[in-house]
Amino acid sequence: MSLNSKELKVIVDLGNSLGYVGDELKQFVNDERMRIEKGNAAKRVFELEKSKLQNAKEMEEQKNKAEEKRLEIAERAKAEAEEKRLAKEAEQKRLEIEAEMADRERRTKLELEARAAQDKKEQREFELKKLASQASQNARNTQPDMLTLKSIFLNLSQLRTLSVQQNTSKHLLRMLADINETLLSDTIQVLEAFDKATNCLSADKKPTIGFVVPVRSQLKAHLHSSGEDSEIIQQLKENLMLKLDRYFTITDLHCVAALLDPRLKSNNNLMSADQRDRAMKLLKQMVSEVPQDHVQSVSSSTNRTDTDSLSPLRKKRRVAEDDFFGDMFTATTSQEDSEVGHSIYDEK
Prior knowledge:
The protein is mainly alpha-helical. It has 13 helices and no strands.
């Protein structure tokens, strides 16, 4: 950039004051002009660099501001994501707590229902044990108890009427009111078979060992539950069946006695094949121990038919037996009646 006239005049005046004239003045003026121009150029370069630095600084500041804004946005997004995550976790925790509480309530309800069912079952078992205990006692001596039960059942309406009319204790009134007539009738029907079985096995003047196997068979058939039995009667029958299997045991001697009854000869449901085989072996052994002359006497007597008429007492007992056994005792011919006896005696 060239100097203006004012600046040149100042340089010339300065050269004159320093004593320069002619060519020396011109050289001084050129030197000063060049120095000044270099200074101006350096200043311009400095200003340019300063401007560049300023621009770079501004750009850096803008960049920093943009980065700060980006970081702020990222931090805000991160904070929002964290807030959403915490909210989701809180919701999940709430659902888990609600599910746990619902499950706890469900388990508590099931436990209460199970406890109530168990209490009901224990109460029913207690009642059944009482009935089973009464049944066991009836099995030993059933007639008085059966008469009492039947008397109560037949006169229940009259008993209730009398208990209301007279000055009766509240305990007796409650007992009469709590009696379930249907259950009492079904119980009598179940226990009546044991009463009949006891009568069949309680003869004083005739052997009844031959009735043991058929009596047990009839009782087991009687205790099979039917579709019309109530739950209590089913449980009663099951308990009586367990007692029957436990205490009413069948020995080989009982099976021998059953085999010797000609009316049971063709009944293959009374005992198993193994029981029948053991009974036959025992029967053969017993016959082998009898003297020969006695065997011949008994063998000949089996061919004779008993024509004696039955006494009234025996007829009554026969009716009771037929009522209990039904058609278990099948009619047989005389030849069939003596078949088992002949096979045993012939082998001896």
